[in-house]
Amino acid sequence: MLTSAPDHLPGRRAARLTVVDPATGEVFGEVPDQRPDILDAVIGRSHRAWLGWRADPAARAAALHAAAGAVEAAGDDLARLLTREQGKPLAESHAEIARTAARLRYFAGLAPRTRRISDGRPGHSEVRWRPLGPVAAIVPWNFPIQLAAAKFAPALAAGNTVVLKPSPFTPLATRLLGSVLAGALPEDVLTVVTGREPLGARLAAHPGIRHVTFTGSVPTGRAVAEAAAAPLARVTLELGGNDAAVLLDDVDVDGIADRLFWAAFRNCGQVCMAVKRVYAPARLHARVVEALAERARTVTVGPGLDPETRLGPVNNAPQLARVERLVRRALADGARAAAGGHRPAGPGHFFAPTVLTDVPPDSPVVTEEQFGPVLPVLPYRSLDEAVEAANGTAFGLGGSVWSGDPDRAEAVADRLECGTAWINHHAELSLAQPFAGTKDSGVGVAGGPWGLYGNLRPFVVHRPREV
Fold first, then answer.
1. What does the angle CA 144 – CA 317 – CA 27 come to, to the nearest 5 degrees?
2. Measured between alpha carbons, how far is 39 from 220 in angstroms, rounded to an integer?
3. Which of 124, 139, 320, 452 has the fewest Cβ atoms within 10 angstroms?
4. Which pLDDT score is estimated for 118?
């Protein structure tokens, strides 16, 4: 079965971590606030489980297929709880659960390939692949179930075991996932731990962990990498982005406005690869601003459980404060809110969908990752200027180019300094493709066969020529 770690060591009182509904600002649940001193026992059991789990690829594939079916069977309960703790509309939570099941099935069908190498010398070498051991998966609050599966599905398929730590803001659905999958996976193959820091830091630094996979902020990612350096564990870090959308001068503004708006505002802008900056030709700038602002002014914002809601709240109070601070700074520096720009009256962590114009290009709302329902739209006069601005931040996760001529757009996209570039759409990924950033956006590769091999190490067997 899938395991949750014990709440506390014997003889100690169990602490609790409360969980807030971002649509109301009220506490509605709690989980154990586990301390780092449980990790020795948890990782010890994970290592012992690994010895059996790694030995039978066929049994692993069958277990992952069973896990996918269990997720689908519990989809309604998982989605509803996910919306309660994360805030996104219920339809988006259902999509997240479906993506989780699909990812489990995808990796259940992958297997590493043995390769024979002959280089002219007597004999030959055969390259095989072996799992690493226990993996630490540290997950953020924007897609807590989907990103957990993006880490544990390839790790488990490769023959590793996993210790999974969700964000303290969104631990409930992950704990429920544990009970849902209790009959699909052997004991201690996947263990869920919940709690505040320093639980995550100690997990990353634990000598029994062989791979740390983390999604979150750049400062925390650097701290995770430093912690994992002590036991020389492998690291995979997805550290967010500040994706630019570059509109060319032949773009059909009305034709792309809906796609561009949702590429920026889906999940209330809390998507690492969302559009976070738009660069529009100067002659089209006003039309682009108004097209996006009209959608921002009319989209239905509310609790995620309301079927009419298209945009929910910001997930947590600290992130809401950051979004508000960035917008206030931009407005103070001369920007204008064509839509939004404020917190609406009432309970919950809501911020009005905001489209900014006249934004200074060096404003933090442009150069930093907002991770909220805020979109600056900036004019450019030459294509070289637009490409330079798009590449002009420390991030390099994704980017997109929008044009009536896809070939022309692709030529511009090839100049973007990022891991993924889209033409006339944004933030769409296949389970079979790699996902990685450049610069401060991360280290390592997730997704597709690359994600599987990231959880394996080569093992070479050399045989002399038989005589």
1. 75
2. 20
3. 124
4. 83
Cα–Cα distance for residue pair 153/132, rounded to 1 Å? 14
Query: What would the two tokens of residue 451 be?
Result: 């994600």
Structure tokens at 252: 């059909």
Q: What is the pLDDT of residue 1?
A: 38
Cβ burial 403-437 (10 Å sphere, 16+ → b, else e)? beeeeebeebbebbbbbbbbbbebbebebeebbbb
Q: List the 275-281 sheet strands across, edge first.
A: 336-339, 354-357, 374-380, 275-281, 243-247, 398-402, 420-423
pLDDT of residue 12: 54
Instruction: Report the distance separating Cα 323 and Cα 375, nearest Å.
Output: 11
> What tokens does 112 get?
């590493």
Cα 327 to Cα 320, 337, 357: the distances in Å are: 11, 9, 11
pLDDT tens, residue by residue, 336-362: 999 999 999 999 999 999 999 999 999
- Picking from 114, 127, 108, the residue whose alpha carbon sits closest to that of residue 57 is 108
Instruction: Show the low-confidence residues of the chain (pLDDT under 70).
Output: 1-14, 467
Q: What tokens does 398 get?
A: 């994704």
Residue 452 contacts residue 432 (beta carbons within 8 Å): no
The DSSP secondary structure of 284-308, one letter per residue, reads GHHHHHHHHHHHHHHS-B--TTSTT
- Which residues are identified as catalytic? 238
Claim: this prediction has a pTM higher than 0.85: yes
Cα–Cα distance list, 226 to 130, 148, 218 (Å): 25, 22, 12
Cα separation, 252 vs 402, whole angstroms: 9
Chain centroid offset of residue 426 CA: 15
N residues, the chain: 467
